[in-house]
Amino acid sequence: MYSLNTEEKILNASILLFSQKGYTAVTTKEIAKEAGVCEMTLFRHFENKHNLFEKAFEKFMFFPKFRALFEGLEWDLEKDLIKICSSYQHMLYKNRKIILMYLKNEDQNPDFDVTMFRFPSEFKKLLNYYFEEMKNKGAILENPETLATSFLTTSFGLFITSLVMNKLTFETDIQACILSYVRIFAKGITYVGS
Protein backbone atom coordinates (compact mmCIF):
# COMPACT_ATOMS: atom_id res chain seq x y z
CA MET A 1 0.00 0.00 0.00
CA TYR A 2 1.28 3.47 -0.93
CA SER A 3 1.90 5.88 1.93
CA LEU A 4 2.53 9.60 1.61
CA ASN A 5 6.07 10.80 2.16
CA THR A 6 6.76 13.61 4.61
CA GLU A 7 6.84 16.36 1.98
CA GLU A 8 3.48 15.25 0.52
CA LYS A 9 1.93 15.16 4.00
CA ILE A 10 3.09 18.73 4.65
CA LEU A 11 1.89 19.95 1.24
CA ASN A 12 -1.53 18.34 1.67
CA ALA A 13 -1.90 19.74 5.19
CA SER A 14 -0.90 23.22 4.04
CA ILE A 15 -3.42 23.25 1.19
CA LEU A 16 -6.17 22.07 3.53
CA LEU A 17 -5.44 24.70 6.18
CA PHE A 18 -4.68 27.54 3.75
CA SER A 19 -7.95 26.93 1.91
CA GLN A 20 -9.91 26.93 5.18
CA LYS A 21 -8.28 29.91 6.90
CA GLY A 22 -6.24 31.79 4.32
CA TYR A 23 -2.46 32.01 4.09
CA THR A 24 -1.93 34.69 6.76
CA ALA A 25 -4.03 33.06 9.47
CA VAL A 26 -2.30 29.67 9.32
CA THR A 27 0.91 29.06 11.23
CA THR A 28 3.68 26.63 10.37
CA LYS A 29 3.04 25.01 13.75
CA GLU A 30 -0.58 24.26 12.72
CA ILE A 31 0.54 22.87 9.37
CA ALA A 32 3.13 20.62 11.03
CA LYS A 33 0.54 19.36 13.52
CA GLU A 34 -1.99 18.63 10.73
CA ALA A 35 0.73 16.78 8.77
CA GLY A 36 1.77 14.78 11.83
CA VAL A 37 5.34 16.11 11.83
CA CYS A 38 7.29 18.52 14.00
CA GLU A 39 7.67 22.12 12.92
CA MET A 40 11.44 21.70 12.41
CA THR A 41 10.72 19.00 9.82
CA LEU A 42 8.53 21.44 7.92
CA PHE A 43 11.36 23.99 7.91
CA ARG A 44 13.90 21.36 6.80
CA HIS A 45 11.75 20.56 3.77
CA PHE A 46 10.50 24.04 2.83
CA GLU A 47 12.55 26.64 4.80
CA ASN A 48 9.56 28.97 5.30
CA LYS A 49 5.83 29.34 4.79
CA HIS A 50 6.14 31.22 1.50
CA ASN A 51 8.28 28.45 -0.05
CA LEU A 52 5.69 25.97 1.15
CA PHE A 53 2.97 27.99 -0.59
CA GLU A 54 4.94 28.06 -3.86
CA LYS A 55 5.66 24.31 -3.76
CA ALA A 56 2.01 23.57 -3.00
CA PHE A 57 0.98 25.73 -5.94
CA GLU A 58 3.43 23.97 -8.28
CA LYS A 59 2.21 20.56 -7.16
CA PHE A 60 -1.48 21.26 -7.50
CA MET A 61 -1.59 23.58 -10.52
CA PHE A 62 -0.29 21.25 -13.21
CA PHE A 63 0.52 23.13 -16.41
CA PRO A 64 2.33 20.50 -18.58
CA LYS A 65 -0.85 18.44 -19.02
CA PHE A 66 -2.65 21.53 -20.23
CA ARG A 67 0.05 22.26 -22.81
CA ALA A 68 -0.37 18.69 -24.13
CA LEU A 69 -4.12 19.32 -24.50
CA PHE A 70 -3.44 22.16 -26.93
CA GLU A 71 -1.08 19.97 -28.96
CA GLY A 72 -3.89 17.45 -29.54
CA LEU A 73 -6.61 19.77 -30.86
CA GLU A 74 -8.55 19.06 -34.07
CA TRP A 75 -8.73 22.66 -35.42
CA ASP A 76 -12.51 22.45 -35.29
CA LEU A 77 -13.46 25.62 -33.38
CA GLU A 78 -16.47 24.37 -31.44
CA LYS A 79 -15.06 20.91 -30.65
CA ASP A 80 -11.71 22.38 -29.58
CA LEU A 81 -13.24 25.06 -27.37
CA ILE A 82 -15.52 22.52 -25.66
CA LYS A 83 -12.48 20.34 -24.98
CA ILE A 84 -10.43 23.31 -23.73
CA CYS A 85 -13.20 24.72 -21.53
CA SER A 86 -14.12 21.30 -20.08
CA SER A 87 -10.46 20.57 -19.26
CA TYR A 88 -10.02 24.02 -17.74
CA GLN A 89 -13.11 23.56 -15.55
CA HIS A 90 -11.86 20.14 -14.45
CA MET A 91 -8.41 21.55 -13.64
CA LEU A 92 -9.91 24.47 -11.67
CA TYR A 93 -12.25 22.16 -9.75
CA LYS A 94 -9.42 19.76 -8.94
CA ASN A 95 -7.36 22.71 -7.65
CA ARG A 96 -10.21 24.55 -5.93
CA LYS A 97 -8.49 24.36 -2.53
CA ILE A 98 -5.46 26.32 -3.70
CA ILE A 99 -7.73 28.82 -5.45
CA LEU A 100 -9.77 29.22 -2.26
CA MET A 101 -6.51 29.66 -0.38
CA TYR A 102 -5.59 32.54 -2.64
CA LEU A 103 -9.05 34.12 -2.44
CA LYS A 104 -8.98 33.95 1.37
CA ASN A 105 -5.55 35.58 1.53
CA GLU A 106 -6.15 38.99 3.06
CA ASP A 107 -2.63 40.27 2.39
CA GLN A 108 -2.27 41.31 -1.22
CA ASN A 109 1.33 40.17 -1.44
CA PRO A 110 2.83 40.69 -4.94
CA ASP A 111 4.75 37.40 -4.61
CA PHE A 112 1.43 35.53 -4.32
CA ASP A 113 0.03 37.33 -7.33
CA VAL A 114 3.04 36.33 -9.44
CA THR A 115 2.69 32.71 -8.36
CA MET A 116 -1.11 32.54 -8.74
CA PHE A 117 -1.24 34.29 -12.10
CA ARG A 118 1.47 32.19 -13.72
CA PHE A 119 -1.03 29.58 -14.90
CA PRO A 120 -3.71 31.97 -16.30
CA SER A 121 -0.99 33.92 -18.07
CA GLU A 122 0.39 30.79 -19.75
CA PHE A 123 -3.14 29.56 -20.51
CA LYS A 124 -3.94 32.88 -22.18
CA LYS A 125 -0.80 32.57 -24.35
CA LEU A 126 -1.94 29.13 -25.52
CA LEU A 127 -5.44 30.43 -26.24
CA ASN A 128 -3.99 33.42 -28.10
CA TYR A 129 -1.84 31.10 -30.24
CA TYR A 130 -4.87 28.90 -30.97
CA PHE A 131 -7.02 31.87 -32.02
CA GLU A 132 -4.18 33.29 -34.13
CA GLU A 133 -3.92 29.98 -35.99
CA MET A 134 -7.70 29.85 -36.46
CA LYS A 135 -7.61 33.39 -37.84
CA ASN A 136 -4.79 32.43 -40.24
CA LYS A 137 -6.95 29.52 -41.42
CA GLY A 138 -9.77 31.96 -42.12
CA ALA A 139 -12.06 30.45 -39.48
CA ILE A 140 -12.46 33.53 -37.25
CA LEU A 141 -12.43 37.28 -37.72
CA GLU A 142 -11.86 38.81 -34.28
CA ASN A 143 -8.63 39.86 -32.57
CA PRO A 144 -6.98 36.69 -31.14
CA GLU A 145 -5.77 38.39 -27.95
CA THR A 146 -9.22 39.82 -27.21
CA LEU A 147 -10.77 36.40 -27.83
CA ALA A 148 -8.24 34.70 -25.54
CA THR A 149 -8.99 37.18 -22.74
CA SER A 150 -12.76 36.86 -23.20
CA PHE A 151 -12.68 33.07 -23.28
CA LEU A 152 -10.41 32.85 -20.24
CA THR A 153 -12.38 35.31 -18.10
CA THR A 154 -15.77 33.84 -18.94
CA SER A 155 -14.52 30.31 -18.28
CA PHE A 156 -13.09 31.38 -14.93
CA GLY A 157 -16.33 33.19 -14.11
CA LEU A 158 -18.25 29.97 -14.74
CA PHE A 159 -15.97 28.16 -12.28
CA ILE A 160 -16.26 30.87 -9.60
CA THR A 161 -20.05 30.91 -9.94
CA SER A 162 -20.25 27.15 -9.45
CA LEU A 163 -17.70 27.24 -6.61
CA VAL A 164 -19.38 30.02 -4.67
CA MET A 165 -22.92 28.82 -5.20
CA ASN A 166 -22.11 25.08 -4.99
CA LYS A 167 -24.34 24.76 -8.02
CA LEU A 168 -25.05 26.90 -11.00
CA THR A 169 -27.90 29.37 -11.23
CA PHE A 170 -31.15 27.68 -12.24
CA GLU A 171 -29.60 24.34 -11.25
CA THR A 172 -27.95 24.03 -14.65
CA ASP A 173 -25.38 21.31 -15.15
CA ILE A 174 -21.88 22.72 -15.70
CA GLN A 175 -21.32 20.63 -18.83
CA ALA A 176 -24.57 22.01 -20.30
CA CYS A 177 -23.30 25.52 -19.52
CA ILE A 178 -20.00 24.79 -21.23
CA LEU A 179 -21.71 23.47 -24.36
CA SER A 180 -24.08 26.44 -24.54
CA TYR A 181 -21.37 29.00 -23.84
CA VAL A 182 -18.99 27.54 -26.43
CA ARG A 183 -21.71 27.36 -29.11
CA ILE A 184 -22.60 31.02 -28.57
CA PHE A 185 -18.94 32.07 -28.41
CA ALA A 186 -17.95 30.11 -31.54
CA LYS A 187 -20.96 31.37 -33.50
CA GLY A 188 -20.14 34.97 -32.59
CA ILE A 189 -16.53 34.87 -33.80
CA THR A 190 -16.72 32.86 -37.02
CA TYR A 191 -16.97 34.18 -40.53
CA VAL A 192 -20.49 34.16 -41.88
CA GLY A 193 -20.76 33.29 -45.58
CA SER A 194 -22.22 36.14 -47.64
Can you offer a commentary on this structure?
With 194 residues, this protein is mainly alpha-helical. It has helices at residues 6-21, 28-35, 39-46, 49-60, 64-71, 77-94, 96-104, 110-116, 118-136, 144-165, 174-189. The protein has two domains: 6-58, Homeodomain-like (Arc Repressor Mutant, subunit A), CATH 1.10.10; 61-189, Tetracycline Repressor, domain 2. It has eleven helices and no strands. The radius of gyration is 20 Å and the shape is elongated.
Q: What fraction of residues sit in β-strands?
A: under 5%
Uncertain parts: none
CATH class category of the largest domain: Mainly Alpha
Examine the coordinates and then state which fold CATH places here, giving the name of the CATH topology of the largest domain.
Tetracycline Repressor, domain 2
Helix content: over 70%
Rg to the nearest angstrom?
A: 20 Å
- Estimate nothing, just give the exact number of structural domains: 2
Mean pLDDT: 83
Largest sheet: none
Which structural class matches the secondary elements?
Answer: mainly alpha
Characteristic key phrases:
single chain; mainly alpha; Tetracycline Repressor, domain 2; 194 residues; Arc Repressor Mutant, subunit A
Can you describe this structure in just a few lines?
74% of the residues lie in helices and 0% in strands. The protein is built from eleven helices and no strands.
List the helices and strands and how they pair.
Layout: H1 6-21, H2 28-35, H3 39-46, H4 49-60, H5 64-71, H6 77-94, H7 96-104, H8 110-116, H9 118-136, H10 144-165, H11 174-189
Helix pairs in contact: 1-2, 1-4, 1-7, 2-3, 6-10, 6-11, 9-10, 10-11
